[in-house]
Amino acid sequence: MGPAPTITIHVPGPLRTYCAGAAQLSISAHTVRAALEDLQLSQSALYRNVCDETGTVRRHLNVFVNSDNVRDLNGVDTTLAPGDVVTILPAVSGG
Amino acid sequence: MADRIILTIGTKKGVFVADAAKPRRSFALRGPFGPGIPVYSTLIDTRGTPRLYASSCNPFFGMKVLRSTDMGKSFTETKSAPAFPKDDGRALVNIWGLEAGGDKKDLWCGVEPASLFRSLDGGDSWDLVAGISNHDHARKWQPGNGGLCMHTIIRDGNRVHLGISTGGHYLSEDGGETFRASNQGVGAGFAPDPYPEFGQCVHKIARHDDAPGRLYMQNHGGWADWTGPGGPRPDIGVLRSDDYGHSWRSIAKGLPSDFGFPIVVHPHDADTVYVMPLEPATRSCPDGAPAVWRSENGGESWSRLARGLPRKQSYFTVLRDAMDIDRLKSPALYFGTTTGQLWIGREGGEQWDCLFDSLPQIYNVKVAVV
Fold first, then answer.
1. A24 inside domain
2. What CATH number corresponds to the domain at position A60?
3. CA distance A90 to chain B (A)
4. Does residue B287 contact residue B309 with C-beta atoms inside 8 Å?
5. Which ipTM score applies to this complex?
6. In sequence order, which ranges of chain B are alpha helices (DSSP H)?
7. What is the tens place of the pLDDT at every residue in B277-333?
8. Which residue from A minimizes the CA distance to B93?
9. Looking at the domain assignment, is residue A38 inside a domain?
10. A/B interface, count of CB pairs below 8 Å
11. Does the residue A95 lie in any domain?
């Protein structure tokens, strides 16, 4: 496996307070899981808002790679390519 | 500074703080803090410089504990919130109970799924209390309608009483190291065995310092007409213990319903206790006419307190932690409704007035004189 691709994590507004106001974070990771593990180390407060204590992405959050929900790809094992944008969004529903 | 009455009001959309001078003529409202996020538990910690605490359980981004050191003018997150160890397999869903412990910074916290946490630094770090959280029964408890929650924490010296829905009443007599189910006389309506060892849907427990050994319980009643296995089980909803919670007996006779959520004891008279009977189907007061019921003899008889409350067409629910009483000489009761009204019952509930009528759904009301 080659060097991990550099990707961008887009941080939703309500969570920016947990990463010094950053709207985007640039990290290197082969998969979404690796990206989350990177967040756990580098942005632990942000990570706790995204994943519960079992390491699972919180139930009412959706994670997208570019425009695709990882639920429709390979979950947190979805592989990442250079330049991908990972977006974390609350799963808003209702009328 | 003159005494002030301070209220914390936990709602579906954050926590509000209201305060008033001693006559309680009018309350000023601040908030919401943690806006938009449900607050099921608050604590007004009057040990030393007053501190206010509120849970803030965001369904999207997880659990927080908020703390105010300026009497509710502002709140900030504590450094961490309760969390299960990673290898435990459980994840926090909600925070249902915040209570003061022994030392100034000692806090206890009941959560969903039913477990107990303790902080020794005012809420900045939390440890699981294994004696109950990993109890042999813990994986057998079932969620009630509100979830599997540990909502009541009562400390009495080395005794710790816990109320779990649905788990029942658990008692520690060694300061919280070990716990055992203590439900003799506590009925369950949703199991073939009307008096199981554990698994009761306890709604709230209350006690008074002046009556050692006595406890009052609002249990999940409303099972008088059950015709299935185990037969009817009337009057299991309102109970009393006189032996530190080892056994319980019904005091529900005379109430219009034995179903309800909160139970509150008068601050100066351990024989005076308040409940709000609800119809189990609608979880609103009988005939749509809200009333608090008071016993002044430890549950032997009850009287209805409704002066000033709506007389009809009122179908709100008052949830388990949404009623409290202050400690002034002539105390006032307070309750918050699922339709967003906050009521005050002056003179021990003799006269009711609506303080605020358009708050979000109210989960929690606490009052203190500071």
1. yes
2. 3.10.20.30
3. 6
4. no
5. 0.80
6. 130-133, 346-349
7. 999 999 999 999 999 999 999 999 999 999 999 999 999 999 999 999 999 999 999
8. A52
9. yes
10. 39
11. no
